Amino acid sequence: SSSYDNFQSIKSKDLDTEFIGLIEKIKVWKIGKDKLNNKIDFIACLGGDGTLLYASSLFQRSVPPIIAFSLGSLGFLTPFDFKEFPTVLNKVLKGTLGFTLRNRLESTLWSKGTAESEEDDEDHVIVPESLQVLNEVVIHRGIYSGVCMIDIYCDDFFVTTVIGDGVIVATPTGSTAYAAATGASIVAPSVPCYIIAPICPHSLSFRPIMVPLNCILKCKLNGDARGDALISFDGRHRQDFTKNHVVEISASEYPLPCIDKEGSMQDWFNGLQNTLQWNGRSAAQKPLEKK
């Protein structure tokens, strides 16, 4: 904490001199060029939930422990107050705080070969590597004005055809994000499952469901679909999703270790009540008057 106090006491006129010394200690990496997995032991996120998602995207394999300080607008996934960072970091370095392993999805976008030769008729990957997804994979109609028709398979068993604006395949962490807007259940991060949530389905009976995490899901456009769609992974890597594409979604081998403030379930319930105002009510029910 002494170094923090020294930093706070820096005067504006001395900032340049002090900053020159800090620059020599700062290491900068280039995204997509430098491999970070073996170079970083610990991550501190300063921002909102989007910052945590971005940090997750930088590590497509094993991820170092992450501590998330809230500096954003919502911060459901960022339980720590930045003002307390000297005390919190000391606890982290002493090993007195636990962590929650947040499951991620491994998503691979395949494309059926369209060349005339038989050799090129086999499926091939059009994404360099499988993407590790923390929140959700979304297939939606994009700029197309009609409804999507998306076939869903679970372990190669046909489940249903989504007819509507699209579908979301989310993790428990993603259950408080886009999936929550569809009316899907909010799920604790330790529950091993996927959430399949239709976006504006053209059916009154199509409710979001949860399936076990050991299933392998596949999604593709129905053969009778009248238009293409768009697909995104945690809101990134947006691209066209046509009848030639199949997305395969399975449980990732590389979960995201997030450091807990009070404990996995305590942090989750605190986030629901304080951030999302779960079961909030302006006034309690009045007791019956005694006669």
**What class would the helix/strand composition place it in?**
alpha+beta
Percentage of residues in helical conformation: 10-25%
**Largest sheet entry:** 12 strands, antiparallel
Number of strands: 17
Structure commentary:
The protein has 291 residues and is α+β, with helices and mostly antiparallel strands. Helices cover 18% and strands 32% of the residues. The protein is built from six helices and 17 strands. The chain has helices spanning 2-8, 15-23, 49-58, 85-94, 178-181, 264-275, and strands spanning 43-47, 66-70, 80-81, 99-102, 105-111, 124-125, 131-133, 136-140, 148-154, 157-170, 193-201, 209-212, 217-221, 229-233, 236-241, 245-251, 256-259. Strands 5, 6, 7, 8, 9, 10, 11, 12, 13, 14, 15 and 16 form a twelve-stranded antiparallel beta sheet that branches. Strand 14 (229-233) and strand 15 form a beta hairpin. The termini are far apart.
Please describe the topology of this protein.
Layout: H1 2-8, H2 15-23, E1 43-47, H3 49-58, E2 66-70, E3 80-81, H4 85-94, E4 99-102, E5 105-111, E6 124-125, E7 131-133, E8 136-140, E9 148-154, E10 157-170, H5 178-181, E11 193-201, E12 209-212, E13 217-221, E14 229-233, E15 236-241, E16 245-251, E17 256-259, H6 264-275
Parallel strand pairs: 1-2, 2-3
Antiparallel strand pairs: 4-17, 5-6, 5-7, 5-16, 8-10, 8-14, 9-10, 9-13, 10-11, 11-12, 13-16, 14-15
